[in-house]
Design brief:
Elements: H1 3-77, H2 85-159
Length: about 170
């Protein structure tokens, strides 16, 4: 093999190894950026869920107060004292059920929010792990390319291409 071809082969191997190295580094950056983006989406969804839930609970409590007022008014129009006996017991029971629904809504929301925050943390950890694997593969490609170049150069020297032997 003539010297120019041997040099070209060495350079091509080096360029290929460096290209693989850069591609691995880019893949790592993409993995991390994607993980951060997805984590932010999960966090925003959790925050929005919290805002929505709190507003829904406020609305439900206002509607419950209106319902209880109407219930008291209907007792009064029927001639029953709303703050005594069975009428009072019915209102207390209704108020308790309404509040229990609100508390359950809040608990369900908190659980879903925790799932979203956990998914965000897991996604970031997975992205970091993938980025580490991509960087490791990039470094291995660079080392492998260097080893191939050294092997090719040693072979060329041994065969006399660079040593003047023919």
């Amino acid at each position: 093999m003539p010297v120019p071809l041997a040099v070209t082969a060495l350079v091509a191997t080096g360029v290929s190894a460096y290209g693989q190295y850069k591609a691995g580094k880019s893949a790592a950056d993409v993995s991390e950026a994607t993980a951060r983006y997805n984590a932010n989406v999960d966090k925003v969804q959790a925050q929005q869920l919290d805002y929505n839930t709190l507003q829904n609970i406020r609305t439900q409590r206002q509607e419950g107060n209106v319902y209880l007022s109407k219930q008291a008014a209907s007792y009064a129009s029927a001639g029953v004292l709303a703050n005594s006996g069975s009428a009072l017991h019915a209102q207390i029971t209704t108020a308790g059920r309404l509040e229990q629904q609100a508390q359950q809504m809040y608990l369900d929301s908190q659980q879903k929010q925790q799932q979203l925050y956990s998914a965000a943390a897991i996604g970031v950890a997975e992205g970091e792990a993938q980025a580490y694997a991509d960087r490791t593969a990039a470094n291995i490609a660079l080392i492998d390319g260097g080893a191939k170049m050294a092997s090719m150069a040693a072979s060329d020297i041994q065969s006399g291409i660079f040593g003047g032997k023919k």
